Amino acid sequence: MRTVLREYDYEPEPEPETDDDLDERTRAGSGHGYRSSGVQSDDRSDYLSLSETAQSVSHGYKFASFGTTNYLRSTLLYAARLLNHPFFSDSNMQDGRAPRVKNRAPAAVQITAEQLLREAQERQETAFRAPKQRIEDFEELHEYRGRKRKEFEERIRRTRGNLKEWQSYASWEASQGEYERSRSVYERALDIDARSVQLWLSYTEMELKGRNVQHARNLFDRAVTLLPRIDQLWYKYVYLEELLGNVAGARQVFERWMQWEPEDKAWQAYIKMEERYQELDRASAIYERWVAVRPEPRVWVKWAKFEEERLKLDKAREVFQTALEFFGDDAEQIEKAQAVFNAFAKMETRLKEYDRARVIYKFALDRLPRSKSNTLYAAYTKFEKQHGTRTTLETTVIGKRRIQYEEELSHDGRNYDVWFDYSRLEEGAMRSLREEGADEEEVETAIGRVREVYERAVAQVPPGDLKRHWRRYIFLWLDYALFEEIEMKDFDRTRQIYRTALQVVPHKQFTFAKLWLLFAMFEVRRVDLPAARKVLGAAIGICPKEKLFKGYIQLELELREFDRVRTLYEKYIEFDPTNSSSWIQFAQFEAALADYARARAIFELGIGQTPLSYPENLWKAYIDFDGHVKVWRAYAQFEAAPIPMSQALREEEEEEEDEEEEEKLVEGDVHLARQVFERGYKDMKNKGLKEERVVLLEGWKEFEQQHGTAADVDKIGTWSSPDDEREANPASFKLLEMAHKWKRMQAAGARSGEGGGSALSMFAASKSAAPTEAVGAEETTGKNGTMSETTREDSDEEMASSDGGD
């Protein structure tokens, strides 16, 4: 896409005074190579067009400065300066900034950057090309050669140490067919630097191009004699002899080369040459010389593989055996020779000699440190997966896991999770050997490994006296003891393990009830009850703990030693009288023995303890045991009564407290007390205990009179006994209520002396008045929420008398 540059007028240059001055400036511009068609010195309008063109050029320069090439910028700058535009005056270009624009209107004539570039391309001068010379006769040829030789001699005289000039000189002489002169130049160059490999190669290449084979041989012989450590010269020499079909000569060159004990590539090249000509015995001899010079594992492996490929299996085995004898039985040498063992075993595997391969692997692995045989173990594992049995595969995997565990433990010896996995691994290996019917020696070795792992594990005692650091560690002792008891049946060793573990634990800071209990259970399994009781007694005496009491009590319960159980519960309560669960369990134990009086007494003692943890649990157990109304009333009063704050809570609130200060109390909860009364009432209602309910209501009323309001006292009437009859038989209850009303009215009339009517008329009158009174009673009940307690008591007595009369 073409880019059109819009030109803005700048402040115009002052006009020349005369046309002669304009013509002179125009001629000066033409003298610099600028050709403007149609520009005349005496034409004023042409001068203005020229000025506009210069302005376009200046704007193109500004455009070029924002992203085009330097070439375009230089071209525009040159063109504008030829036009003498004021934009490029010295005053404007000194500060490097564009001049201030006077007139921003577009110019009448526009010019594009493409036009400027095209014109600049057309004005470029072509590069200089030397003229071609055509030689017509020998005289001109001699003249040309003489001139070139003179130039070369002059150049090598100035730069005598520049070998490229010598090579150019010699190559030119060879191109002219002057081989003698070319050799002379090369020899002169070799006198300057005889150790330049590139110079020797160029010299020999010149001779080979000229088909001077003998000269090339002589040059290679001189080169390798002078530079025997440059492999490139030897390779070129050998290649030349083999290319000419001179195999004996190539072999002779190799023999000269091998005397210098070159790199492995040189030996390999010699062997490959012999293989190309089917000289396999010679190649085997070269391998033998090679391992004598460099007895490295890879050389032995290559030699054995060569013998295997040419089906010399006995020779291959002999090579491997010689290699193993060379490296010996030292662990360091065997580690170095792992590649030899691996290759030897793989060869036997390819030959389907699996037993031989397995023996080779085991021979190496038994003599190598576990941390340095990862590669060999990986190869052995792969071999067993392909050709081994389940047993051999498991053995291989176990060995690999051992290496992994040992590496992890070397970084962190107190990583108890790794010790657990390691011990389980060894125990599993031992069980597998027993199941497979292995010999006694192998089993004993496996047992020794298990014990070694456990002994190393328990030796890693945690630092410090924080119990959280000991939790994982103590299970190592427990697993060790269970292994000796269950797997080995070594009970004396098991007992010793438990005792040692108890000696290690700092019981003054903390203890582990599980350790004591498992030790006691072990003695029970050994039918040694006195020893078990002695262990648990020592535990309670040294470091009493709730779990220890529970375990000891459970043991005596299973043995049906109830007197001992009572004694233990007493010790338990003496140890922690604030523990509600101990009181509950003690009472339930007595209840299970049908000693209810003792159980009730224990509950009474428990609820009397202050402070008490979770007292609601104790009350609930007491109520479930004996749902007596007194218990419900006492429970409710307990919930409402303030209780002393425990010492722990007081220490949390105040770090320093005066001993003579009064004991702080925690206020009771009246709402919880009401809930207790409601639960007790419903429980007695479900059981059909009317008298107990009346007693409970009396206690409730007293409670509300003390802690509640008048409305709360009035609500107690809604819980009275007649509600049961009303809910069960609503029709008969209505009839009885009317009868009671009539009886009260009759009694009232007799006391006032107003007797006049018959009983039937009185009954009719009472019948007619009953609905109104009933409605009034319902309204009173609806407003007040309850009837007066006196009325309800009278109705209860009357209902009882009427029931008795019926």
Automatic annotation (TrEMBL):
Q: Where in the cell is it found?
A: Nucleus
What residues does the Pre-mRNA-splicing factor Syf1-like N-terminal HAT-repeats domain cover? 151-296
Q: Sorted alphabetically, which SMART domains does this protein's record hold?
A: HAT (SM00386)
Biological process (GO) annotations held by this record are:
spliceosomal complex assembly
InterPro entries registered for this protein in UniProt: HAT, HAT_Syf1-like_N, HAT_Syf1_CNRKL1_C, Syf1-like, TPR-like_helical_dom_sf
Q: Name one Pfam family in it.
A: HAT_Syf1_CNRKL1_C
Instruction: Answer whether the UniProt record assigns the keyword Disulfide bond to this protein.
Output: no
* Quaternary structure annotation from Swiss-Prot or TrEMBL: Associated with the spliceosome.
Function, as annotated, reads: Involved in pre-mRNA splicing and cell cycle progression. Required for the spliceosome assembly and initiation of the DNA replication.
Task: Supply the name of the protein.
Answer: Pre-mRNA-splicing factor CLF1
